[in-house]
């Protein structure tokens, strides 16, 4: 198939015919005193069951990363963000394909400034990978002799053998392998990943769960230096994938799997039986009829040429064939699943209680109703505080708190006299005075750390924020720290005024202090506003 032909498809006769339409853009150009002329740029759109393909002209905006301008509109062009999220995101694959002759022009920033003009030696020496993966193809004569056989031995001989290279000689060895016809796989430079991964996760709306508790991104950028004849057999991933074809071409076959939110991939070409069984059991939760052995009919096919952008969602079957030498990168994005977020929170509520089998069952019988009751009183914000959104504030000094700058008035429900609040059962405020050495001089402030949802195996907090409070209001913070019952704004304000009398020290604008304290702790997930319950 020539590069200008965007799609082939194999399908059952009964399937609804895909349709095509033309989007017409106009651009004006002037030449001296000549009248402006309109140039028609046709964008053919194929809207199939498994894949949507747009073709753009030379008017397509360049893809430039690391600027203040939004990245997604130029990446998706000519598809709009609204159409992408409504009709494509997590539903089907999408290709933005340059018209013939356009090539990689709009990827020049990525190639020149972030991919070292595709220089193999530089890419290998700047990789974030600890090891370089190599795929060696078997001798063509052997492949030819067994290509029509169906025996297990023939299938084994057709497989591409892979191995890893690490250590001081890894780069030189990888270059030798590549020169001998092997395909390479490794991660991009950390500099590129540190820019592109957060940029995409932010604009896609998944950056709140796209990072580990220590701040490291869960996503990565994979570099594929693929040789002619390299084939990756049918499989699907559990990541959201954004591929940029930088050199050469690849044929992709695409088909939906019916698994919309996979916890694991499906890699039937792997030899590890334990891995395959783990994959199968997770997919059978969503679809009891799921099978690794599926009909290859009814797939759709597209050739990615130089300059193509390709989105393929988690859970979509794909097979990749290289008709020529190819270089591409794939931005692989991972976000925490709701099952991870909720299950980690539930561990807080249950606690750790080792018993023998009989005692464990008895304990569980009494615990489950209580757990259901506790969960029924929780809100989504207990698990997903607004402060999870990045960029995050790692610390606050209450004395210098700028409510307007933080935009807390729009991020937190309006607080009034009868507003009621409840402490998040999976959040704690830890006074650092318990672990810091006491100073000889009396401090005029005290520090606390807020932790939210740390029920994972590493006990790493989803939210971890340092907070500094003037000593005059530390009694309010400590009152909130041990509070277990629902309380009202008026109760906390009355406590503040009682403290003023007890200490014979007036608190400037007690009502404002209480309001801002509640806003700060609500925004960061320590307490939740009960107004809507």
Entry summary:
With about 525 residues, the protein is α+β, with helices and mostly antiparallel strands. The protein has helices spanning about 70-75, 80-90, 110-115, 120-125, 140-145, 150-160, 170-180, 190-205, 275-285, 340-350, 355-375, 380-385, 405, 410, 475-480, 490-505, 510-525, and strands at about 5-10, 20-30, 35-45, 50-55, 95-100, 130-135, 160-165, 185, 220-225, 230-235, 240-245, 250-255, 300-305, 310, 315-320, 325-335, 395, 420-425, 425-430, 445-450, 465-470, 485-490, 525-530.
Task: Give an overview of the whole structure.
By secondary structure, the protein is an alpha+beta fold. Among the domains are: 339-378, no CATH class; 382-529, no CATH class. 30% of the residues lie in helices and 25% in strands. It has 17 helices and 23 strands. The chain has helices spanning 72-76, 81-88, 108-114, 120-125, 140-146, 152-158, 170-179, 190-204, 273-286, 338-350, 357-376, 380-383, 403-406, 408-411, 474-482, 489-503, 510-523; strands at residues 7-9, 19-29, 37-47, 51-56, 93-98, 132-136, 161-165, 183-187, 220-226, 231-235, 240-247, 250-256, 300-304, 309-312, 316-321, 326-333, 395-397, 420-423, 427-431, 445-452, 463-470, 487-488, 527-529. The protein has an eleven-stranded mixed β-sheet with strand order 2-3-4-5-14-11-16-9-8-6-7. A five-stranded antiparallel β-sheet has the order 1-13-12-15-10, with no helix packed on it. The protein has a four-stranded mixed β-sheet with strand order 17-21-20-19, with helices on one face. α16 packs across α17. The longest helix is centred in the C-terminal third of the chain and has 20 residues, at 357-376. The N and C termini lie far apart (60 Å). The model is unreliable at 1-42 (pLDDT under 50).
């Amino acid at each position: 198939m020539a590069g200008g032909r965007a799609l082939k498809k194999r399908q059952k006769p009964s399937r609804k015919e895909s349709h095509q339409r033309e989007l017409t853009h106009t651009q004006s150009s002037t030449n001296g005193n000549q009248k402006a002329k309109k140039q028609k740029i046709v964008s053919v759109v194929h809207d199939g069951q498994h894949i949507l393909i747009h073709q753009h002209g030379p008017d397509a905006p360049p893809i430039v990363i690391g600027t203040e301008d939004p990245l997604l509109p130029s990446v998706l062009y000519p598809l709009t963000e609204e159409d992408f999220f409504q009709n494509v995101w997590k539903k089907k694959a999408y290709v933005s394909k340059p018209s013939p002759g356009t090539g990689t022009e709009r990827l020049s920033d990525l190639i020149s400034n972030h991919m070292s003009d595709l220089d193999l030696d530089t890419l290998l020496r700047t990789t974030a990978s600890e090891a370089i993966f190599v795929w060696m193809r078997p001798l063509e004569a052997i492949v030819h002799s067994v290509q029509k056989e169906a025996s297990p031995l023939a299938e084994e001989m057709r497989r591409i053998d892979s191995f890893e290279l690490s250590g001081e000689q890894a780069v030189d060895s990888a270059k030798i392998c590549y020169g001998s016809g092997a395909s390479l796989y490794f991660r991009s430079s950390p500099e590129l990943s540190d820019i592109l991964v957060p940029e995409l996760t932010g604009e896609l709306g998944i950056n709140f769960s796209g990072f580990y508790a220590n701040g490291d991104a869960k996503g990565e950028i994979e570099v594929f230096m693929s040789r002619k004849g390299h084939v990756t057999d049918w499989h699907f991933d559990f990541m959201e994938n954004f591929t940029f074809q930088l050199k050469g071409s690849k044929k992709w076959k695409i088909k939906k799997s019916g698994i919309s939110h996979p916890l694991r991939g499906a890699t039937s070409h792997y030899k590890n039986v334990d891995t395959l069984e783990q994959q199968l059991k997770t997919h059978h939760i969503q679809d009891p009829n799921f099978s690794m052995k599926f009909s290859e009919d009814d797939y759709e096919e597209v050739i990615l040429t130089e300059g193509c952008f390709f989105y393929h969602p988690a859970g979509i079957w794909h097979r990749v064939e290289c008709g020529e030498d190819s270089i591409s990168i794939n931005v692989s994005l991972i976000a925490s699943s709701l099952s991870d977020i909720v299950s980690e929170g539930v561990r807080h509520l249950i606690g750790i209680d080792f018993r023998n089998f009989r005692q464990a069952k008895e304990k569980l019988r009494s615990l489950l109703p209580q757990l259901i009751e506790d969960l029924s009183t929780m809100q989504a914000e207990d698990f997903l505080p607004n402060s999870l959104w990045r960029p995050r504030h790692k610390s606050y000094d209450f004395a210098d708190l700028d409510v307007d700058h933080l935009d807390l008035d729009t991020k937190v429900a309006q607080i009034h006299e009868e507003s009621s609040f409840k402490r998040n059962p999976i959040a704690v405020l830890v006074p650092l005075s318990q672990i810091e050495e006491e100073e000889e001089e009396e401090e005029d402030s005290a520090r606390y750390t807020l932790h939210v949802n740390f029920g994972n195996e590493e006990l790493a907090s989803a939210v971890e924020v340092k907070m500094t409070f003037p000593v005059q209001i530390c009694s309010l913070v400590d009152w909130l720290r041990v509070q277990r019952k629902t309380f009202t704004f008026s109760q906390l304000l009355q406590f503040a005024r009682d403290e003023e009398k007890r200490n014979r020290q007036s608190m400037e604008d007690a009502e404002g202090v209480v309001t801002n304290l509640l806003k700060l702790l609500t925004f960061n997930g320590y307490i939740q506003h009960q107004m809507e319950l």
